[in-house]
Amino acid sequence: MNNKKKNVLVAGANGTTGRIIIDILQKSNTYIPVAMVRKQEQKERFESEHVTTVLADIEEDLSQVVTQIDKIIFAAGSKGKNVVGVDQEGAKRLTDAAKQAGIEKFVMLSSMGADNSSQNKELEAYLKAKQNADEHLRASGLEYSIVRPGQLTNEDGKGRIELGSKLKKSGSISRADVAKTLVEVLDNDVMQNQTFELLEGETSIENAVRLN
After folding, report:
1. Which residues contact 67 (CB under 8 A, 6 or more apart)?
2. Could you say which of 74, 126, 144, 196 is catalytic?
């Protein structure tokens, strides 16, 4: 039995959700986090916390970033400043690099509404970018899970969620619970090759992702 820990690249590690993901992975018995960041000072901060870190720009060549990596969580985002360059093309570029490298699984942080971007005029460009990135991942041949949460909050995680391919309602969920869900679906055969929406709910995260 192979008990070697898996290296998980976290794109967007310095973001609010990304930092939570890194913290969860650091405490894991299964995974080792690898933080992908854009700035030297971010790299130094993670390394001071004993987190392996790679310096890379999501808009540049990423082929070297995925060497020695087993799985990927894409949690990067431009906060509306460059949705095509980062949220869409950056995600597609990392997907392509992952495909070339034979990555075991790619977990994408998307957004509720990404399958129907025209319904939300305010966020239409962002949701369209996420939709295009999701479709690129689905067509890549990689093993994947695409996680589409509702509105993100900075509240403490409750550890309980509701998920489904289409929840047919709006709502919110804490970044902490989203981060935990992203890590839970890293497991092979958990929500494998599925796209699902995610809100605060009543079922424990561990059970919710394995009952579907």
Report:
1. 101
2. 126
- Please return the burial class of 158, using the count of CB atoms within 10 Å of its CB with bins 0-12, 13-18 and 19+: middle
CA distance 165 to 28: 28
The domains found in the chain, sorted by start residue, are: 6-208 (3.40.50.720)
Distance CA 148, CA 134 (A): 10
Residue 22 in this model has a pLDDT that exceeds 90: yes
The CA-based dihedral angle spanning residues 76, 116, 164, 151, taken in that order and rounded to the nearest 10 degrees:
50
Instruction: Say which residue the tokens 């894409």 belong to.
Output: 74
Active site residue 144: no
Rounded to an integer, the average pLDDT of 100-122 is 91
pLDDT digits (tens, 9 = 90+) for 140-191: 999 999 999 999 999 999 999 999 999 999 999 999 999 999 999 999 999 9
pLDDT digits (tens, 9 = 90+) for 134-149: 999 999 999 999 999 9
